[in-house]
Structures are given as C-alpha cells and as structure tokens.
Amino acid sequence: MSYSNSKFDKKKLKKTTINPKLNNESRSIKKHNLLLTILFIAVTTWLIFSPSLKNSFTNWDDPAYVYENEYIKNLSLENIKNIFSNIIVYNYHPLTIISLAIDYRFSKKIPDDFFGISAYTFHFTNVLIHVFNTILVFILFYLISRKRIEIAIIVALLFGVHPMHVESVSWISERKDVLYSFFFMLGLITWYQYNYKNSKSILLYILTFIFFCLSILSKPAAAIYGLVLLLFNYLQNRKLTWRVILEKIPYFIVGIIIIYITYKAQSKESIGDWKILTIPQRIMFASYGFLAYMIKFIIPIKLSAFYPYPSTFPIKETLHWTFYASPFIVIAIFILLGYFYKRNYKLPVFCILFYFVTILLVIQFVSVGKALMADRYSYIPYIGLSFLIAEGFSYLWRRLKIVLTIKYLIGFILFIYISILSYLTYQRTQIWKNNYTLWTDVIEKFPRKVDVAYKNRGNYFARETKEYDKALKDYNIFLEISPNDPTIYSNRGNLFGLQEKYELSIADYTKAIVLDSNYLDPWVNRGITYMKMNLPEKAIFDFNYAIKLKPDNINNYRYRGYSYLNLNKPDSAINDYNYVISKNASNVNDFFYRGVAYFQLKNYEKAIEDNTNVIKINPQNGSAYYNRSLCYKAMGEYKKAYEDALKAKKFNQNISDAYLKELQILSTKAK
Questions:
Q1: What separation, in Å, do the N-terminal and C-terminal C-alpha atoms of the chain show?
Q2: Which of 428, 472, 649, 652 could, after both became Cys, cross-link 166 (CB 3.0–4.6 A)?
C-alpha cells in the first residue's frame, strides 16, 4: 500500500448529489463511534493494569528515585533548578524527577511504614500515562492508515496490553519510560501532520521539536528521534532532499549531546569495561537481543525482571547455538528488507526499521549493566511490530477474496491472541506486588544465575519482614555466585547490625571496603555501627571518608555531628548541623541535636531557639519540651521551666516528680 496522497481519476468519478444534512449526520456518527472506540481501548488498558495500583515499592531503584531521593521532596523553584542542573540516578531526566516530585507532594505519608510513603499515587500516575500513550498510539495509526480504524485498534491494543510492557508501567522507577513515550508519541502525531500538509506548517514543526525536547528530558532513549522522523518521511513518500536532512539537524544535535551526557554519567557505574567482550561477542549478543525481543513480541513467555548473560565474563565457554546463529539471521532479515526496499514495499521496511532504530541503543552492543536484555526496552519498539501485524490482518480481511467464514476465523484468532496477552499482562502486574514476589519470580526462572535477585530478596527479608535467617541464606547464595562483590558484604553487615552482632557487622563492612575503598555504603554503615558501639572517634574517621567520597550527602554530616556530640565536641557538632540545616530545614532531629550541642556550650538562648523550632515542627515532642525546660532552669526562668516540664510529661516524657516539685518551689520563690 502507498501512503502518499492519492490522486483521483476524475473520469471515474460519478456525478452525485450531496445531501449536507446526511453528510453531517454521517460525520457525527463516525465521530461518536471513534470516541467510543477510544473509550473502550482506554478502559480495557486501565483494567488490565489495575492490579498495579495495589503494588508496593521495590528495592530496585525505587529508593534512589523515590523514598530516599531528596530531590523530589519539595517543588520550590530552587529545587527545580537543582533538578535541571544535576545528574540523578546516573541519568539526565529532569522532567521524570519533577513528575515524581509532584506525586510525592500529593502522596499519603505513612510514618510507621517501612517506606514512609504510599506507593499508590506513583502507580496511579504510571498507569494513567500508559493509558494516554495507548490513546496516542491509536490516534497516530488512525491517521497513518488513512482512518482505517481496525489497524488503529489492533496497534493500540497490542501496545496497551502486551505483557512485555508491564515492567515499564508497574515499576515506579520506569516512570521515565512511560513519560518519554507520551511526548514521543505526541511529537510523531504532529510530525505526521507536518508531512501531510506538505511541510508548510512551521507551527507543527516547532511543536514536534518541543515534544522531542520534552521527551528527551524525560529519558535519553529519545535521542534517536531524528532517525524515526526520517522513517516517517520515507513512509509518507518525502524524497531525501537537503531540506529534509536540514530539518533533522536540531534533533541529531540534541540527541548526540544527551547521548554524550548519559555515557559520561553511566560510564563509572553501569557501562561495562569494553575489554570484557570482544567485538564478535558484542555483535553476537546484540543480534541475539534483536531477535529475542521479536520472539517475545509473538510469544511472551518466561518474562523476567532480569535476564542474565549466558556466562560470566570473560566468556571462554561454548554457548548455545542460537547465539552464534543470531548474527546470520539478522543479516538475512536485512537482506530481505533490501529486497522489499527495491520493490518499494514501504510498510515492512518502515515497521522493521522503526523497531530496529528504537531498540538500537539498548541491544547491548555497548554493555550497560549486567542484564542481556530487559522487558522495558520493548515499550516503543513494539509499535513497529504491532503495525506490521495490524496491516497483515487488514490485508487478509480487506484485500484477499476469501470466504466469510475464513475471515471471521482470522478475526477470532486475533481476538483470542489479544485476550491471552491481556490475561498474561494482568497476571504479570501482580509479580511486581512487592520485593518478595518480584525477586522470587526471577530466582525461579534463573536459579543461582542472578546474584542481584538474591541480594534484593535478602534485603526484603532483612529490612521489611525481619526474617533474618532467610536473609542470611540469600546473602550467602549471592556470595557463592559473586564472591568478590563488595555490596553483599555491606548488606550482610547491615543484617548483622540489625541483630546487634556488631563485631560480625564490622568485619563485613571492612571486607567491603577492602574490595572497593570508593564504595560509600560500608564507610557510612561501619561509622553508624561504631556509633552504636560507643566508639565515636572511629565513627568520625569513617564519616570523614564518606564525606570525602560524597560531599553533597547531608546524612553523613548528621552522623558525624552526632558522633562529635558523643565525643563532647559541641563546636564541631554545631558546624555539621549548621551545614545540614542550611540544606534542609525540615528535619526535627537536626534542630534537636544542635540544641543539645548549644546546651553543652551553655549557650542556653540558642538551645531554646532550636528546641522551639523542634516544637514548631512537632508540637508533641516531649524531649524538646524537657530540654527547653532544662535551659530555662539554667537561666533562672523557673516558671517557663515548670510549664515545659509539665508539657514534656503530658507527651510521655519520663519526668521525675522530684524535678517537677523542685521547679514548682523555685517558681514560687521567684514570685
């Protein structure tokens, strides 16, 4: 099928009379049916993903993105400026962080909960954006297919209910995936209209570029946008002129800049050493991933949050034959595409190249992380494959002269297939319910292959359910898989710390530091353990090193300030708390302990000021009333001291009757 503007043969047109009233009624009915179709698609997608709304956070990136992320805890102009000025979680995606900050603002805070905040708002937003994305996919392909509604419905449903998309929607940290796709699709719609109007609308060009910028500020994956726009030019029969190329220059420039920023941000943490794989091995794994995603599009089985490489690095063993065959199969596919291109079969060329271009950056030619592939990488690329399926169905339904029963059989098969996908998606959303269900699923599919699954499930047992024996078992299995990984020694040290086995805890932290002296966590955690062991000098040494590693982490200044208090160095403690409060003036403990330091220095006015700040933030803080009472007593203001002591007792502070009686007598004498 040609997607160029068709020219009508006037000789073949029959003379007809047009009834304006009937024509308007027809348009009204068509518009009504279109809205009902969109509503059906939206409701179906929402219902399929609705179990996500009951899911919790996971310990896979959610701490860094949400409940431990200081950047999302306020929406001040200064903080928004900081979000745009910093790499956060090894990516530059400020709009994603701002969207999480908005959710944080409106989410329910739960002080007694492990996470301290409800996950519902974050899941709700993810599902809602996915529904909008599905609607945008419908609109785009309704336009592309010249208003053939069956194509738009099939593409939208395959996109909306595919189980490979669960990771992008049900994982809160993948907000970047659904958000960048929202702007990505809006830009494709305006670009299609820009081409359709013969490139005369500057407004549509500007809108497309704005949507592109919003998309790439949500996730760097939008860097390939210029190539996607070229594919749309090809589909719409625009010749590759200098004007067509120049139109894409701004997209390529911004894309290259973002790719460079992302590479620099991830090079130390996520991107593997180039030497761990040879060029042939990289081609082999990239080809395997290219084909594996295509297979999982048709047969989405054995889905996992983590797909390990088939061997540890460096790879010396013989792998399964499919890895060696993959490059040749990919070459055959592109030879076939070349044939289609020469025969001007635009549709398969567009669909496969759309899939290839949008998945190009994540098929592990450059190794990012420890996973061979990831479900989330299929979110946008599957649109190309869905379009190919939809066009194939439409061709069989409309073009081939087949008997009615066979046509209905084809339709029934498609209905059953989409229904199966919907069921699998509904079930898979529940795998993301919590850390236990998620990591147990990975372990069952790849037993003793994915070390991070044992670590994260162990963290769940240790921190959330307090099942320390189960946690220790998972940590030890991790050590069998990766004996030289410092993170697991740090985590096991945390476990021993929770059990108050401090000597074992110190030994594990020290082992982690020996393996990687630049790893922050064991320095901080060993310092905290020394604090609990009442060894403040050793604690301060560790916090000093932690601050050297990450000077912008205010928690380390808090810990060091507390250690200085225990070492009876109030001046040093005040310096640390001054810095912390200058960065975040909402933490009760910072004012409280600075007040203690001022009390040690007998600077009672400053101590009273800090305890008053504590009471303003938390009016029921009995300790602050008691400490302020002590300050008033030291200053001879016995009435105020007595009043504060009574309030401290009211709020469950253990105040002795002797102290109250003493203050009562002193205040009476003062009169």
A1: 99
A2: 428
> Quick check: 243 and 64 in contact, CB under 8 A?
no
Which residues are bridge partners to 308 per DSSP? Answer: 371
Q: How many residues does the chain have?
A: 671
Query: Which residue shows structure tokens 């709009």?
Result: 95
Please compute, for residue 25, the number of CA atoms within 13 A of its CA located in the half-sphere on the CB side: 5
What ranges in 86-174 are assigned the alpha helix state H? 94-106, 120-144, 149-161, 166-170
Q: What residues contact residue 519 under an 8 Å CB cut-off, 6+ apart?
A: 486, 487, 490, 512, 513
pLDDT digits (tens, 9 = 90+) for 443-494: 999 999 999 999 999 999 998 999 999 999 999 999 999 899 999 999 999 9
**Which DSSP state fits 309?**
-
CA distance 474 to 516: 22
Please say whether the beta carbons of 201 and 194 come within 8 A.
yes
Distance CA 461, CA 457 (A): 6
> What are the residues whose beta carbons fall under 8 Å from the beta carbon of 266, sequence distance 6 or more?
90, 91, 368
Asked if residues 233 and 332 have their Cβ atoms less than 8 Å apart, the reply is no
Asked whether 169 and 178 are in contact (CB, 8 A), the reply is yes
Nearest-angstrom CA–CA distance, 607 and 43? 58
The alpha-carbon radius of gyration of the chain (Å, integer) is: 31
Helix (H), strand (E) at residue 371? strand 371-373
Type of residue found at 277: L
Residue 204 to residues 184, 234, 321, 583, Cα–Cα distance (Å): 14, 18, 49, 43
pLDDT tens-digit series, residues 367-420 = 666 788 999 999 999 999 999 999 988 888 776 666 667 777 888 899 999 999
Q: How far apart are CA 449 and CA 345, in angstroms?
A: 44
Q: What is the pTM of this model?
A: 0.83
Q: Is the peptide bond before 314 cis (omega within 30 degrees of 0)?
A: yes
What's the Cα-to-Cα distance from 98 to each of 81, 182, 472, rounded to whole Å?
Answer: 10, 15, 37
620 Cβ contact partners less than 8 Å away, ≥ 6 residues apart: 651
Tokens found for residue 270:
């996520």
Give the chain's largest Cα–Cα span.
115
Helix (H) / strand (E) containing 232:
helix 225-235
Closest by alpha carbon to 386, among 140, 174, 212?
140
| Burial class for 498, CB neighbours closer than 10 Å (0-12, 13-18, 19+) | middle
Q: HEC string of 568-584? A: CCHHHHHHHHHHHHHHC
Token representation of residue 182: 């929202």
Please compute, for residue 443, the number of CA atoms within 13 A of its CA located in the half-sphere on the CB side.
19
Q: Quick one: which H or E segment has residue 398?
A: helix 382-398
Across-strand partners of 535?
Answer: none
Q: How many CB atoms lie within 10 A of CB 73?
A: 16
Amino acid making up residue 253: I
Question: What is the spatial distance between Cα 538 and Cα 654, in angstroms, rounded to a whole number?
Answer: 32
Cα 578 to Cα 558: distance, rounded to the nearest angstrom: 10
Say yes or no to pLDDT of 273 above 70: no
Q: How far apart are CA 580 and CA 381, in angstroms?
A: 45
Single out the residue of 631, 620, 660, 658 nearest to residue 643, CA to CA: 660
Neighbours of 332 (CB within 10 A): 10
Phi, psi (degrees; rounded to nearest 5) at 147: 65, 30
